Amino acid sequence: MTLQIRSNEEKVDLLIEGDIYEEHAECLRDMTFSYARRGIKKLDIQLCSTYYISSKGKQCLRLMKDTLDGQGVQVLFKPKL
What we know:
Layout: E1 2-7, E2 11-17, H1 22-37, E3 42-49, H2 55-70, E4 74-78
Parallel strand pairs: 2-3, 3-4
Antiparallel strand pairs: 1-2
């Protein structure tokens, strides 16, 4: 998995290429939680050339989204998870 990050004071764009396994999803979760703690309210996660997401990775990302949604952070996956 490779990751490109674009950010400003209001929004973070994460551009992901490659397969996502559980350990990758956990890293993404920790990064997004860190951004949320710093006050970011919008996260766009673009799955560019991602063809495979492990079941535990998908579960981790869904839990991450639900947690951040509950904190008022908008998380958008493109294409949808």
